[in-house]
């Protein structure tokens, strides 16, 4: 597949990332640009998807940016890997559930290479880890589809400040927790981005 791989070393403002993706979406729709996979990190920000509710905000003093992605409220910040994409499903299966499954398999397979067993949950989107009987989210997924072009992306908690999630009900799920890779297993994750991209492309081509 003809996919551009972009990696940003400095943190990217959320609004700038969205503008870039929406511009790429237009270009792909006009067949004037390649699909995109973009690895980056954000500065501290809370974002709300199209299905969030006000009672999912615990700390009313935080600023929340409303977005057009699917899902509810989440947090992005330093120590978290964000993988954005703009992928043309017109060239693949026009099946959103299948595309979400590709993302889930990509994350699960990648974390398995670090000897971390995670799983997807049809009722609660994201990737989960069983921490001594308590399910905790380690990766969040938020996707929007326009003219069968999928964009936005997913984030994996590596070593971010988990206390930031105390201000919200993460993804609107009240009875589960949040964790990070470093909490699960204190090892080196410097190749995580490369493995994610490799597995994502491989799964897209199946």
In short:
The protein has 206 residues and is an alpha/beta fold. The protein is built from four helices and eleven strands, in the order βαβββββαβββββαα.
Word description of this protein:
The chain is an alpha/beta fold. It has one domain (3-204): Bira Bifunctional Protein, Domain 2 (BirA Bifunctional Protein, domain 2). The protein starts with a strand and ends with a helix. It contains four helices and eleven strands. Helix 2 packs antiparallel against helix 4 (192-204). The strands form two sheets. Strands 1, 2, 6, 7, 8, 9, 10 and 11 form an eight-stranded mixed beta sheet that branches. The chain has a three-stranded mixed beta sheet with strand order 4-3-5, with no helix packed on it. A hairpin with a 2-residue loop joins strand 8 (127-131) and strand 9. The longest helix has 17 residues, at 96-112. It is globular. The mean pLDDT is 94.
| Element-by-element helix/strand order | EHEEEEEHEEEEEHH
Uncertain regions spanning at least 5 consecutive residues: none
CATH architecture: 2-Layer Sandwich
Specify the helix fraction band.
10-25%
Just give the CATH class. Alpha Beta
Mean pLDDT: 94
CATH topology: BirA Bifunctional Protein, domain 2
